[in-house]
Amino acid sequence: MASDTMPPPIDQMAATILDDSPDSSALWAQFSDRVLIKTIVSRSDGGGGLAGQKVRVGGWVKTGREQGKGSFAFLELNDGSCPANLQVIIDKEVSSLEQLVQTGTCIYVQGELKKPPEGTKQKVELRVEKVIDVGPVDPAKYPLPKTKLTLEFLRDFVHLRPRTNTISAVARIRNALAYATHTFFQKHGFLYVHTPIITTSDCEGAGEMFQVTTLFSDAEKLEKELKQHPLPSESEIETAKLLVREKGDIVTQLKSAKASKVEISTAVSELTRAKDSLARLEDRSKLKPGLPQKDGKIDYSRDFFARQAFLTVSGQLQVEGFACALSSVYTFGPTFRAEHSHTSRHLAEFWMVEPEIAFADLKDNMNCAEAYVKFLCQWLLDNCLDDMEFIVKNFDKSAIDRLKMVASTPFKRISYTEAVQLLVNVTDKKFEKKVEWGIDLASEHERYLTEVIFKKPVIVYNYPKEIKAFYMRLNDDTKTVAAMDVLVPKVGELVGGSQREERYEVIEKRILEMGLPLEPYDWYLDLRRYGTVKHCGFGLGFERMVLFATGIDNIRDVIPFPRYPGRADL
Fold this sequence. Notes:
Blueprint: H1 37-41, E1 54-67, E2 72-78, E3 86-91, E4 106-114, E5 125-135, H2 151-154, H3 165-187, E6 191-192, E7 198-199, E8 211-212, H4 215-228, H5 234-256, H6 261-285, E9 293-294, E10 297-298, E11 309-311, H7 316-326, E12 328-336, E13 349-358, H8 362-383, H9 385-394, H10 399-408, E14 412-415, H11 416-424, H12 443-453, E15 458-464, E16 480-488, E17 492-499, H13 504-513, H14 522-529, E18 535-541, H15 542-550
Parallel strand pairs: 3-5, 6-12, 14-15
Antiparallel strand pairs: 1-2, 1-4, 2-3, 4-5, 7-11, 8-11, 9-10, 12-13, 13-18, 15-16, 16-17, 17-18
């Protein structure tokens, strides 16, 4: 591609991989007739080696200002491909400058990359030769001015907040972690399984689940329909019954008189229509406004799935079925919890990564969890360093050091009993929740272990059975289960998992002990009835991993569309 001509249309052009050699061409996006800003400014030379190249770029104006008494304008342009902006210079002869300099304006331009004057921060800038398209903004109405905005304020504009530096950086970090997740498990021979979002099983046994039902909408439709078409009266039903008798008598008389087949057939058809009409009236007369009832309770057999159904709190139970056939599997998807919590650590909708491994025990589980968390941290250091540097500069100065520490440090492993003893012996801090054997460790306890006592990630294992789920394998002491939690600085628990109870009699007893009905878990017990196998697994809260990586304080700011009590925007 000649440097003095624009590239051919993208459908006629193969993308050229960009390296740092002076004569390399810009990498034109394969499905968009433009060059990504990242391709220009993220080179080791800052893009200076591309001076002289003709390109098209598109993006949103971060800041703009007219210079030289309005003869030209400087724009800081960003297309979301990286945190850095591309400086764009437009002369007033090329386009009217007034609408281009407004923050939030979208522009699509072509021009030539040039080296800026010596001593400037930029290594390259774009001198615009043609403005192809503009998406203007009314600065009086645009809700995201270029002044610094709080993350709390931005939650009211979830559809626009990706345009801010912080949310776009978090989005790229989140994307990198998702890509790393699939890379890690695929590399180790795990199969990705899509588990259902709608379920009839409560994995946690906590009962804090969103119910999925059409009964309310069905009742509303019925109420509206009954207003327009009231229920049939008793006289209407009696009239319909009389008509059936009359039609029946006619058929009998015709048969007795040995009438023709045509006459009898016609009379039978009329009788059938009369019977169908009566049946519809009788069925309709049984309709009752409101929710269907049976024995004083809501009759869920009349619901869409003919039983109670919920949004899943975990894909674990279902993915176990595949682990018990395909050996190593994982699921990665949204989960839901109807917990009325307004803390900075809780969401109603969140994502979980849940691997499950057959022929593996608790030690194997801990090894896998540790390797996975380290892989995620190293991946960000290797592939998302520019965004992490933005995070360090603006939110958490220790974020990169924390990633390096976790990626390179062996995790400390201690039993729950040992952890409790260490916390009981703490004298320099008073915990809000008293520490004693049998409690579910709170975030303050978890963070003290990892941040103060050991100063590195900690895996706590063998928890009391009373505070863990029914599916966790009962240890020989009959007091604890083969559970483990991975604790990391900043967030506390990042991973929770266990060796699963593979013994039929034991898990059946555990379900009953926890006051849960057996029937919804009958299919789960089948996995123990038929070809049971030792297996284990864990769940990583994906948003917690993003919190850990970024150091951002509120979990509502690390998921694209946060759902929490009172809010479900868009």
